[in-house]
Structures are given as C-alpha cells and as structure tokens.
C-alpha cells in the first residue's frame, strides 16, 4: 500500500514538520504579496525587462530545484528511498507514467484543436521558430521537475505523512487536495476569473489524489501533471496566465470561468478515472479512499 510505505522507515514527526510548515508560510506570504500588487502587471513588467523565455526560466527554476531538495530531504533525513515515496511497487512503473502522459497530451491537443477551429477569432498565431525551440528545450527539462515537485510534495510526502499521523486515507486526500488548490490562489488566473477558478484547482487536486490512492503510487499523477503543464505551455499562451510563453498560439479572448471549470472537473476527470480503473483493474474504492490505515510496525511513528 502506498501510504504504508513509510511504516518501516525512520519516520519522526518532528523531522516531518519543517517542510509542510515552511511551505504553509510560503503560501501565506505569496498570497499576501499578491494581494498587495497586481500579479499580472508584475509578470508583464518582468517580461518587458527579461523576455518570455528568461521570465519563464526564473519563475520555474525555484520549484525545479525544490524537487531535488525534497528528494534529498527524504533520502537523507528520513532515510526513505525515492521509490517508496513514488510507488508501492518494487520499482517505479515508467509505463504508467508514459501512458498517463500520452493519454492526457493527446486529449489536450485534440481539445485545443477543437476550440481553435470552432473559434479561430479567439486565437492568433504566436509561433516564432527561434524563441519557440529555446523555450521547448527549457520546458522539456524544467516543467517535469516543477510538476514532479508538486506531486511529490502533495501526493507523496504530505499524503504519506498525514496518513501516518491520522491513520486515515480520507484525511490526507482532503487536506492535500484543498492545499493544492489554494496553492494557486496567487495565480493571475484567479485575479482575472475570480475565486470560482479555485473549483478547477481543488478539483484537479482531488482527481490526482484519488488517482494516487487507487493506483497505490504517483506514476499516473506524475504523467498527467507533466502533460498538462508541458503541452499547455507549448500550445497556447495568453496575457493573463501564470505561464506567458513562446507558444504556438496565443489566446486573445476575454477569459471567463464557467464551462472551462465544469467540463474538466465534472466530466473529463471522471471519464479519465474510469479509463484508468478499467486499464489497471482498480477495486475496493471505498476502502482505498476512506479506509483506516493499520501499521504492523509502529516503531518511530
């Protein structure tokens, strides 16, 4: 079982606390800073000074480095293998990561093409070969690290840690999903569309959390999240998103949070969970999502 992976590790509660406490303080500080300044204007100003590619680089590098630091903390401080933080399987299942990446990348491309051809007036061609391929090289390296950090932090480190402390599966699912959504509260999309967009972010957190608990590992969530951010950043940009990049297309329409929130959370994500459940033969949904965790070895907990 995925959460139980830490039962035979050197888990110490006081060593577990620094990362969630630090991240919580960072989230609060980030929210307070964003409430005092216009995030969208700040991004535009940075782009005017550094350009899109360098702005992207400096905005994403901290999270990419944080991924490496989190792995180091888990390995050195907790003496826990990265494999056990990733999956309950004997080794990381790369076929799961690639399947999930390919599935969501394909769906994302198809949906983007449908929207583009149905409403071409909402888009302009933004493709510039030189800047695009530089951005592509940066994105392929940095975005998977950024998305992996978020998955390892929320669906890995926090999911396992909260599960150990509470002996519950439902509690870490609820906490990590809500925290994941609130982490995006300082994004310019929230300022542009309103707090209703948090339904999408929190809904995505629940989707990824359910996927992780049902599949007993992070592989599917890692693949989905990487495809979501990478393909999205390469295909479409706009003047009001967190990632303003040298993408192929630029969305020039006026943003609104309605159908774009409802469709993924209440239609697409349930369909994807059904596809995953059929492919990987998920069973015992109630037990895996809401059951009590029992540890045979309670040493160090």
Describe this structure in words.
InterPro entries: Rce1/LyrA-like_dom. The mean pLDDT is 89. This protein has a three-stranded mixed β-sheet. Helices cover 70% and strands 3% of the residues. The protein is globular, with a radius of gyration of 20 Å. The protein has one domain. α7 runs antiparallel to α8. With 301 residues, it is mainly α. The protein contains 13 helices and three strands.
User: Helix/strand-derived class?
Assistant: mainly alpha
Number of helices: 13
Q: Which spans of ≥5 residues are poorly predicted at pLDDT below 50?
A: none
What average pLDDT do the residues reach? 89
Distance between the termini: 17 Å
Strands of the largest sheet, in order across it? 1-3-2
Number of domains: 1
Overall number of strands:
3
Range of helix content: over 70%
From the spread of the alpha carbons, the general shape counts as globular
What's the story with the biggest beta sheet? 3 strands, mixed
Order of helices and strands: HHHHHHEHHHHHEEHH
Q: Tell me the β content.
A: under 5%
Over the alpha carbons, how many angstroms does the gyration radius reach?
20 Å
GO molecular function: endopeptidase activity; metallopeptidase activity
Keywords: Hydrolase, Membrane, Metalloprotease, Protease, Transmembrane, Transmembrane helix
GO biological process, one term: proteolysis
InterPro entries: Rce1/LyrA-like_dom
